[in-house]
Specification:
mainly alpha, two-stranded antiparallel ribbon, flat
């Protein structure tokens, strides 16, 4: 039967019921053109509660099948709906509280947040990993918890590959994609980040190092971080060399030197 016809039929049945309930819902059982069967007691507001319950039960015997189905569905929705909504609100409050507690450095709260397997908990973990006001090591731990989940939205993690993120966060994001796979959003973010580093744009570690007098040891550390970053980016691009070749042609064709550098270290598609 056509679903729209079923809905129309249900509305017609509901419209024909009349006023149906008193104490537990039934007041008088009139459904459409069908009146209460002879011998079935009617509800009397002046009689006892148990008497009205008995009358209600007897009146329900006169329901047609489709009326019974609609009545059962209505009761289930009215009973289950508010309970489900209450539990949902409580869970959201708990996840929010765990996020703010973890954000302040509480690793136990981070672990409890990761124990929730809902998609909303994954969003809170991703939000924690993205939070620039949170300690970098805590963000790395959040990425580690996120990598262990059943599914990860790469669009929420790909921005963490950008060079203005601390190296440890970038590296943790690389580890996640190496484990879970690097697809279009990941490849695109990797090429943009690698290209920016190739062009000499300021990285997070360069900006941090500029706050204090430069030493030869600092230069060695910066050079090592750059080498490690380039290796991380190339490892990601080699996770999906075909997509990398396509995006190099579509998005970076004008940067010929950079394209040659990437292709030199890229596996055969």
């Amino acid at each position: 039967m056509n679903p729209s016809l079923i809905l129309i039929r249900i509305r017609e049945e509901i419209a024909g019921w009349g006023r149906a309930f008193s104490v537990l819902g039934v007041r008088r059982a009139r459904f459409g053109s069908h009146s209460v069967p002879r011998g079935v007691p009617e509800i009397d507001p002046d009689q006892s509660v148990w008497g009205n319950i008995w009358a209600t039960w007897m009146n329900l015997q006169g329901l047609r099948p489709i009326q019974g189905v609609v009545l059962v569905i209505t009761c289930v929705v009215l009973l289950v709906g508010p309970t489900w909504w209450f539990l949902r609100v409580q869970q959201r409050k708990e996840l929010r509280a765990l996020y703010y507690s973890a954000r302040s450095g509480d690793l136990e709260s981070l672990s409890r947040l990761a124990e929730h397997h809902s998609s909303e908990a994954s969003l809170w973990l991703a939000k924690l990993a993205q939070d620039r006001h949170t300690d970098a090591e805590l963000r790395v731990e959040a990425l580690s918890k996120l990598a262990a989940r059943r599914s990860v939205d790469e669009t929420t993690v790909a921005p963490l590959l950008w060079i203005d993120q601390p190296f440890v966060v970038r590296h943790a994001a690389v580890d996640l994609f190496m484990e879970r796979g690097c697809y279009d959003a990941c490849i695109s973010a990797t090429l943009r980040s690698f290209g920016a580093m190739w062009d000499g744009q300021t990285t997070a570690e360069m900006r941090f190092n500029a706050r204090s007098p430069e030493t030869s040891e600092d230069n060695v550390i910066l050079a090592q971080i750059r080498t490690d970053s380039e290796r991380d980016y190339m490892n990601l691009l080699n996770r999906n060399p075909c997509a990398t070749q396509r995006m190099l042609a579509d998005e970076h064709a004008s940067a010929s030197d950079f394209v040659k550098r990437v292709r030199a270290g890229l596996k055969t598609c």
